[in-house]
Amino acid sequence: MFIGGNDLCDFCNDLAQYSPQNFTDNIRRALDILHAEVPRAFVNLVKVLEITNLRELYQSSMRELVESGRYDTREDFSVVLQPFFHSIRLPLLEDGRPDMSLFAPDCIHPSQKFHSQLARALWVNMLEPLGRKTDTLDLTADVALSCPTQNEPFLRTVRNSNYTYPTQPAIENWGSDFLCMGWSPSSSVPTSVHELRPADIRVVAALGDSLTTAVGARPSNSSDLLVSWRGLSWSVGGDGALETHTTLPNILKKFNPRIFGFSTGTQEETAGLNVAVEGARARDMPAQARDLVERMKNSPEVSLEEDWKLITLFIGGNDLCHYCENPEAHSAGEYVRHIQQALDILYELPRAFVNVVQVMELAGLHQGQGGKCDTPLAAQSNCTCFRRSQENMLEMQELKQVNWNFQSGISRFSYWHQYLQREDFTVVVQPFFQNTLIPLDERGGADLTFFSEDCFHFSERGHAEMAIALWNNMLEPVGGKTTSNNFTYSRTKLKCPSAERPYLHTLRNSQLLQDPVEAEAGPTVLSWAAPVAAGGSLVVGIGSVMAWRAVRRRQRGNLSTSF
């Protein structure tokens, strides 16, 4: 198998479709088909030819795929990476120009002469043991054809090469590197939320459930899995620094070390302005909002009138878990109504930027993950709706529809007329969870490193991914925000404000609303927001069905089910 040239050529036209990750995923699917359906097969996977730095990403992704051991599970099948194309030496003429006799008339495809050299290099690679394969193609050399020997008569595989794939060094932490430049605050404290820079934020706070208190973010030393690692919470945790713990406050500390309100440790006494409560539902959001407002009013660290406040609200998991017990009380309409009540209370606060994060698509988490979660856990009894509906397709489809309705219902808050009336207050819906699928490991199963010991709450790695996704959403314009999350490890995924767009994005500075009072006599939601929300709901539906299909065939197992 030899592929990649056209992907590299089209990369600049569509960075997402032709990304190294998608490149590897497509190869994996092809190899999976061969692995599943073709007995007695020896598969050559030839490295993509060298084209600048992007080529290195493609090559390393191919190497990692083969070295994962995914295709070393049978005696009659093997995938061997043949690296002769890792680097290439083109012959030059006396005047310094490339020898074009190696290419077809289109100057891109190889000529017969080039094909001859490729065939020789591939044959030699096939007879070379792993760990000692030639990784350079010298087109000026006379490549001698090797022969099998009496002692080494076989095509070389990882097994008969007595080769052990190198192990990747363990990741010591889930921190991120800060690469942003020119991140100073505004020359004077801004009066408009539409001109708010990250360095202008002084106070952070959060509302929600156990996904915001960070239950299970680290392994527990006792039988009690419900330790709340608040200092590691994606939206409001402040343990350590960004280099070791990726959280929204730790990102903001790079812009303003004096921020206040973040949580530390595991105790309620150090929760700061994290008012989230384990097991909370949307109906609890007004009370949490009132609690938060009172804490801010009573805190000597908060200047209510002067300090800019960043508040993140994330709720809905428990509403979905308990939907079947009382569909009316947990309907999408009630869900939206309770959140609106909380936002109305937060509207009392001056100088506030409120993130409302869309609830994730939960059905996939309840399709069974196997592995360490096969043993029933006590907490699993708390989410009976998804557990029960696994055996009833109609019930599961109804829950998925309610899930989608939750997402589309709150997607309108960014356009809600009553929250557009003040210069110092905004609500922005952050949709990165809208189409997020369960991350998979290299063998195609659910990657449980993103989950806690109960396989339902997020681990510290999962919290880091959520923090990155939230931060990046905040720097993206309304109407152009990423609606999925790329669960791939990198310390450099954080976006940076730019000179052209230095502000946290709101509806107004996203240039979707020119005049703050133009809709003053209009409906509660801007007239064009309804079709936008409807379109988003369709995308949610498609993404959720894909998630369901991706996990439906996995081994069924019990899950932790309480937020």
From TrEMBL:
InterPro entries: GDSL, Phospholipase_B, PLB1, SGNH_hydro_sf
SUPFAM superfamilies assigned to the protein according to its UniProt record, in alphabetical order: SGNH hydrolase
Organism: Phyllostomus discolor (pale spear-nosed bat)
Keywords of this entry: Membrane, Transmembrane, Transmembrane helix
TM regions (residue ranges): 525-548
A single GO molecular function term of this UniProt record: phosphatidylcholine lysophospholipase activity
GO biological process: phospholipid metabolic process
Gene Ontology cellular-component terms listed: brush border membrane
Protein name per its UniProtKB record: Phospholipase B1
